[in-house]
Amino acid sequence: MADTWVIVGLGNPGPRYEATRHNIGQMVVDELAARRSESFRAHKANARVAETWLRPGGPKLVLAKPNSFMNVSGGPAAGLARFYDVAPERIIVVHDELDIPYDTVKLKTGGGHGGHNGVRDVAKALGTAEFPRVRVGIGRPVGRQDPADWVLDPFGATERQTLPILVSDAADAVEMLVAEGLVAAQQRFHAPRA
């Protein structure tokens, strides 16, 4: 499909994980669906999917939330790529990023997975790491907390005050990446805030 983009929000399934840092990718995909008054439905690729458009007459967006756990996100992502006949460069993976400060959005294509098992599994399943990523900063835990526990904790009270803005910024980054390309989106979202 010529102008189709698959946007995969990484996370873990079920109510236990909905509000956790690891699920911010799915929160962003929820925001993109809400902006278009779309709801998700089951898809045979083991994901929940909402099909919509960037704007009327614009590129088609397939918003997807894998039903699998984070570490095995690759199967649903690859299944959606096959179903919609979309090349890896048109699969945008939205995920949490420990190595970026909270309240920051960064974009890149390719490169390593930075220890993120969801990204690692998507790259393995697609057979390439050359797919665009919207990386949503969650920061590292303070003190001795294990990062593996940190990502599965809900956002703290202070973080929750600005979380809707962060999710909205990340959704804006996805839209700009589709509309104007990676470099334009990087120039906007990587610039220091005024």
UniProtKB/TrEMBL annotation:
Top class in the EC scheme: hydrolase
Subcellular localization: Cytoplasm
Active site (catalytic residues): H22
Enzyme Commission designation: 3.1.1.29
GO molecular function, one term: peptidyl-tRNA hydrolase activity
Residues with site note (Stabilizes the basic form of H active site to accept a proton): D96
Predominant cellular place of this UniProt entry's protein: cytoplasm
Pfam families to which the protein is assigned, alphabetical: Pept_tRNA_hydro
GO CC annotation terms, alphabetical: cytoplasm
Keyword RNA-binding included in the entry's annotation: yes
Keywords of this entry: Cytoplasm, Hydrolase, RNA-binding, tRNA-binding
Presence of keyword Transferase: no
SUPFAM superfamilies: Peptidyl-tRNA hydrolase-like
Family assignment from sequence similarity: Belongs to the PTH family.
Function statement: Hydrolyzes ribosome-free peptidyl-tRNAs (with 1 or more amino acids incorporated), which drop off the ribosome during protein synthesis, or as a result of ribosome stalling.
NCBIfam families cross-referenced by the UniProt entry: pth (TIGR00447)
Name this protein carries in UniProt: Peptidyl-tRNA hydrolase
